[in-house]
C-alpha cells in the first residue's frame, strides 16, 4: 500500500478553499474511486485522468486507487483537480515525488492527450494559496498552473507560481528532472480595448452633459425616449469616459469574469460594459444556479456599467432584485447552509421607450392614455428612487453631422479631475469611498451639506413630498458632482437646482 498527498483548491464566491488531495494505491479490484463531495465534473475526471496518463506514457497502477478530497463536507466543483489527482496517484508509486508534491498547490484540467487546459477562478486560487497558508502557517512552496492561466496569474506575479503545458512536464518537475518557467516569462501587456467614442454622437448636448456628470460621480441613470433618440449610443460610450481601473480593481474584475467560465484568460483593464438581453431572469441578473451559485450580470459589471435596455420588458420581480446590490454594492446568495458573496459595485443605466408604440409626441401616440401611463409600471417607485439622473432623450432638433464633436478623451479628462477632487475630499474623512455616488447619506447631511440657500430648497422639496429622504441624499451627491466638475468648493443654490433638474423626470411621491 502506498499513499501520497498534495493540495488543490475549489472556488466559492470571490474566495477559494484549499483542498487536500490524497491518493492511496492498495490491494483490491482495479479501479479508481474519488470521494469528498465532488460534483459531476470531479466524478468524470477518472476517465480523463486515466486516458491522459496512458497517452503520456506514464505508469498507472493496476490495483485499487482511492482518492480523497478533504475537507469531506466542503462541496467541490470544477475540473481543476485533474492534475493534482493524477500527480498524487503517480507519486504514490514513486518516492522521488513525495517531497516536492507535499509542498505544492496544483490546479489544471487534463486533456485526453495529457495537455493542460485553463481553469476558472485562478486568481482566487493563487490568493488563497498565498494568504490562506500565511494565516494558518501551512504555506506552500510552489503553485502549479496551466499555461492558459498564465496571463491572469501575472496580475499577482508571485515567484512561487510555476507554469506547465502538459502532464509530462508537470511530472518531470515533481520528480526533479526539469524546472518550470515562472510568471516572469509571461508577456502580460494588456491589449488596447476599443470602446465607442462620444465623438460619434451628434448634437444632444444636454444628454452628453448628463452622462459626463454620471461618470464623474458614479451615478445611476434612467433614460426615456423614442427609438433612435440615442439611448443605446450614450450608454455604450459611458465606459470611454470612465477612468482606467486601478491594479486592485483589475484583479477584482478579472477574477469575477474568470469565475464565470466565459473568459479566455483576458485581463479586464477597462471598466466592463455588460448589456444582458431583456429576457434575462433573476438568477442571470443577480446570480444563482444549482450547486455553487454563479455570479450574475451585476457582478460581471463590477467596477463598470450595467446597461438594461428595453427595461420595460424585464419582469418587475427581477428588476426589484437590483435594490439591495445598488445599496450594498454586493450580492449574498445562500445555498444549503452556505453563503456566497459576490461584489456588485456598478453603475446602472436603464433605457426605455415612453410607450409601446414609441412615438415621442404624445399627441401622435396610438396607445391609450392608460397604456401610456402604465407602460413602466414594472419599474417600481423604490427602484426609481435609487436612480440619480432621470433623462429624457430626444431626436428632435439634432443635426445630421458635425466635425467639431467633443471626443471621449477630452470628456474623460474632466471626469478624472472631478473624481480626483472627490477622492481627496472623502479620503480626509476616512471613508472607504472614492466617488460621490457611494458616500453615505448621514455623512453628507451632517458634514457636507450644500450652502444654506441650497439646503433650504432641498428642505422645501422634502416637505412638500417632491422628494423622499433617500432623494435628499441622492440630490446632495449629485450636487457635489456638479460642484466638482465646476471646480466649486461647496454646492451652492445653482448646483442644487442643476441636480434637481437632472432628477426632474422622477415622479413625486415615490415610495422610500
Topology:
Layout: E1 2-12, E2 15-26, E3 31-35, H1 40-55, E4 64-70, H2 82-91, H3 98-101, E5 104-106, E6 109-110, E7 116-117, H4 122-136, E8 142-146, H5 150-153, E9 161-164, H6 167-174, H7 205-217, E10 221-224, H8 231-237, H9 247-259, E11 273-274, H10 282-286, E12 287-288, E13 294-295, H11 297-300, E14 305-308, H12 316-320, H13 323-328, E15 330-335, E16 338-343, E17 347-352, H14 369-373, H15 381-385, E18 389-392, H16 408-427, H17 441-447, H18 452-463, H19 469-486, H20 493-502
Parallel strand pairs: 3-4, 5-8, 8-9, 10-17, 10-18, 11-14, 14-17
Antiparallel strand pairs: 1-2, 2-4, 6-7, 12-13, 15-16
Strand order of the largest sheet: 11-14-17-10-18
Separation of the first and last Cα atoms: 67 Å
**Mass-distribution shape:** elongated
Q: Kindly report the average pLDDT value.
A: 90
Q: Stretches where pLDDT falls below 50 for ≥5 residues?
A: 507-512
Give me the Rg, rounded. 27 Å
Count of helical stretches = 20
Portion in beta strands: 15-25%
What is the number of strand segments?
18
Secondary structure category: alpha/beta
Described by strand count, sense and barrel closure, the largest sheet is:
5 strands, parallel
* Proportion in helices: 25-40%
Can you describe this structure in just a few lines?
With 512 residues, this protein is α/β, with parallel strands linked by helices.
Structure description:
The longest helix has 20 residues. By secondary structure, the chain is an alpha/beta fold. The chain has a 5-stranded parallel sheet. It has a 4-stranded mixed sheet with strand order 1-2-4-3. Strands 5-8-9 form a 3-stranded parallel sheet. The chain contains 20 helices and 18 strands. The chain starts with a strand and ends in a 10-residue tail after the last helix. Helix 2 packs across helix 6, helix 7 runs parallel beside helix 16 and helix 17 crosses helix 19.
Amino acid at each position: 500500500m502506498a499513499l501520497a498527498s498534495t493540495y488543490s483548491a475549489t472556488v466559492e464566491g470571490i474566495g477559494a478553499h484549499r483542498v487536500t488531495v490524497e491518493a492511496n494505491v492498495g490491494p483490491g479490484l482495479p479501479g479508481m474511486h474519488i470521494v469528498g463531495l465532488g460534483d459531476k465534473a470531479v466524478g468524470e475526471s477518472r476517465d480523463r485522468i486515466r486516458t491522459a496518463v496512458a497517452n503520456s506514457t506514464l505508469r498507472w497502477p493496476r490495483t485499487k486507487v482511492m482518492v480523497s478530497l478533504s475537507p469531506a463536507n466542503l462541496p467541490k466543483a470544477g475540473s481543476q483537480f485533474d492534475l493534482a489527482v493524477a500527480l498524487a496517484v503517480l507519486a504514490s508509486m514513486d518516492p522521488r515525488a513525495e517531497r516536492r508534491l507535499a509542498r505544492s498547490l496544483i490546479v489544471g484540467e487534463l486533456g485526453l492527450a495529457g495537455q493542460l487546459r485553463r481553469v476558472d477562478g485562478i486568481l482566487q486560487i493563487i490568493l488563497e494559496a498565498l494568504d490562506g497558508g500565511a494565516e494558518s502557517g501551512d504555506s506552500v512552496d510552489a503553485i502549479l498552473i496551466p499555461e492558459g492561466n498564465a496571463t491572469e496569474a501575472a496580475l499577482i506575479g508571485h515567484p512561487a507560481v510555476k507554469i506547465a503545458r502538459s502532464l509530462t512536464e508537470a511530472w518531470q518537475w515533481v520528480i526533479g528532472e526539469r524546472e518550470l518557467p515562472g510568471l516572469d516569462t509571461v508577456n502580460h501587456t494588456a491589449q488596447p480595448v476599443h470602446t465607442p467614442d462620444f465623438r460619434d454622437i451628434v448634437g444632444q448636448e444636454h444628454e452628453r452633459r448628463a452622462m459626463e456628470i454620471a461618470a464623474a460621480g458614479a451615478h445611476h441613470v434612467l433614460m426615456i425616449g423614442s427609438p433612435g433618440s440615442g439611448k443605446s449610443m450614450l450608454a455604450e460610450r459611458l465606459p470611454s469616459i470612465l477612468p482606467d481601473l486601478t491594479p486592485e480593481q483589475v484583479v477584482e474584475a478579472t477574477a469575477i469574469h474568470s469565475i464565470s467560465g466565459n473568459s479566455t484568460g483576458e485581463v479586464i483593464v477597462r471598466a466592463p460594459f455588460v448589456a444582458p438581453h431583456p429576457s434575462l431572469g433573476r438568477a442571470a441578473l443577480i446570480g444563482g444556479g444549482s450547486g455553487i451559485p454563479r455570479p450574475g450580470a451585476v457582478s460581471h459589471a463590477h467596477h463598470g456599467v450595467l446597461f438594461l435596455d428595453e427595461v420595460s420588458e424585464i419582469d418587475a420581480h427581477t428588476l426589484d432584485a437590483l435594490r439591495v446590490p445598488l445599496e450594498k454594492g454586493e450580492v449574498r446568495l445562500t445555498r444549503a447552509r452556505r453563503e456566497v458573496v459576490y461584489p456588485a459595485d456598478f453603475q446602472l443605466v436603464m433605457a426605455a421607450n415612453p410607450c409601446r408604440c414609441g412615438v415621442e409626441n404624445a399627441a401622435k401616440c396610438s396607445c391609450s392614455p392608460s397604456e401610456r401611463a402604465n407602460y413602466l409600471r414594472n419599474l417600481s417607485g423604490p427602484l426609481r428612487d435609487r436612480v440619480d439622473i432621470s433623462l429624457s432623450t430626444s431626436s428632435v432638433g439634432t443635426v445630421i453631422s458635425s466635425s467639431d464633436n467633443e471626443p471621449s478623451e477630452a470628456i474623460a479628462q474632466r471626469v478624472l479631475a472631478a473624481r480626483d477632487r472627490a477622492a481627496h475630499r472623502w479620503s480626509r474623512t476616512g471613508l472607504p469611498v472614492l466617488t460621490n455616488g457611494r458616500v453615505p447619506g448621514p455623512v453628507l447631511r451632517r458634514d457636507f451639506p450644500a450652502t444654506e440657500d441650497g439646503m433650504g430648497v432641498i428642505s422645501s422639496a422634502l416637505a412638500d413630498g417632491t422628494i423622499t429622504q433617500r432623494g435628499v441624499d441622492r440630490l446632495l451627491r449629485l450636487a457635489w458632482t456638479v460642484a466638482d466638475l465646476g471646480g466649486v468648493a461647496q454646492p451652492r443654490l445653482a448646483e442644487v437646482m442643476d441636480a434637481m433638474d437632472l432628477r426632474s423626470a422622477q415622479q413625486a411621491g415615490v415610495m422610500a
